[in-house]
Amino acid sequence: MPVAGRKEEIRLLEKQMQLPQSSFVAVYGRRRIGKTYLVRQVCAKQMLFECSGLHEKNTSQQLENFYLTLNHLSGKNKKNGLPATWLQAFDQLKQYISSLRTTSKKVIFLDEISWFDTAKSGFKAALDNFWNQYATKRNDIVLVICGSAASWIINKVINDRGGLHNRITCSIAMQPFTLKETAEFLQLKKIDLVYKDIVQLYMVTGGVPFYLNDVERGESVPQIIQRLFFSKTAPLKNEFDNLYSALFKNSGDHIAVIKALAAKNKGLTRSEIINQTKLASGGGLTNTLQELAACGFIQTIQPINKAKEDLLYRLLDEYSIFYLKFLERASGSRRWLEMYNNNTYKVWCGFAFENTCLRHTVAIKTALGIAGISSSEYSWQHKGSVSATGAQVDLLIDRTDNCINLCEAKFYNGPFEITKQYADTLLKKKTVFASQVKTKKNIFVTLITPYGATVNRYYNSIVTNQLTAEDFFR
After folding, report:
1. What average pLDDT does this structure show over 423-439?
2. Which CATH architecture is the domain 7-173 placed in?
3. Using an 8 Å Cβ cutoff, are 337 and 222 in contact?
4. Which of 243, 285, 326, 403 is the most buried (most CB within 10 A)?
């Protein structure tokens, strides 16, 4: 199946094939996100050597795997014998490359790279030597490292202070599909769903290709969710247990942060995270938050006109939110079809749709016709007091053309009708915001709903413009 979406990632990889010198590429991201598939598809014609680390195997087994893979390609390794060290293994790879007469680009693809790096194996030093003492002296090598253990690639290669410091030519952090890319993926599978249903499916699974690959034709969204999460053989029922341990070393801290954020829909500050998790403040927590953000699990949101310490960390990973809300404490097989329309689900839908909007600010700006205008995205909250009304806004688009879009996201199963009461609520929110922030910019109330809103007198009294689910797919 062709690659759905990923236009920027494909462009970056293809660019490496055109450079007049060798290049070192790091591809990382959560498991099931399509890293290996992307590299294989884009680099198929230039692929010279591909080897994947073995999960939880010792150094001698990793070396044997590398040796056998290379020997299968060249047939010349038998005289050298099984390497005893990684320096010897990479030397055999050098010999093979040097024996080739072609001058075209040669992709060396090391997948699940962290698994090669067993304790005291010397793998990283040998990789350093291969790149610095061999590949950089040529102009035809594209070294691609890849893996789900994002922390290994980030800490030991991208942010390395040793021999690999500042050596990465191209870094690709694979993120989940956007809604538009999700629709393209489903279309390749001949699955035709209306926009609102794709949004609803996205709110549960996120844009993770592996999760979406299990969607079958002819099923409604409730049926899909029931089969993927709640049936006896549900493929995603136990995914949470493996997800974070595969990505991060000492993943307990990451899971603690995720669970704390899952309990607070609007997000937590760093100090609140420390209070909730009892984790120590310092470099360890900073690394944990940075790694979670790099893999797309959380997003940092700066409250408008607030100090840096008020920065909010918000959990955006759809799968984790859904799992912790509906599966973590579930006992036995639950029938999602019976839960689908209860009040708990409807409340969750509201927050999940807000998260979807936060993930798609680029699409929102494009639909509003302001893609070319520089802006910052914020959240805002005023708790209020006895004498002052409180208010809260999840998404503010603060533009450099003297305007602010105050975005209201409402998940509704049909056209949304604004009542007098809701119009008054929006007006109070707009008024309190303007008063507390003391802005002189134009404030436009932007309504985002799956099917749009009925234009009545209450709509006209407060709403400037509206977007529908279809706008996310343009």
Report:
1. 92
2. 3-Layer(aba) Sandwich (3.40)
3. yes
4. 243
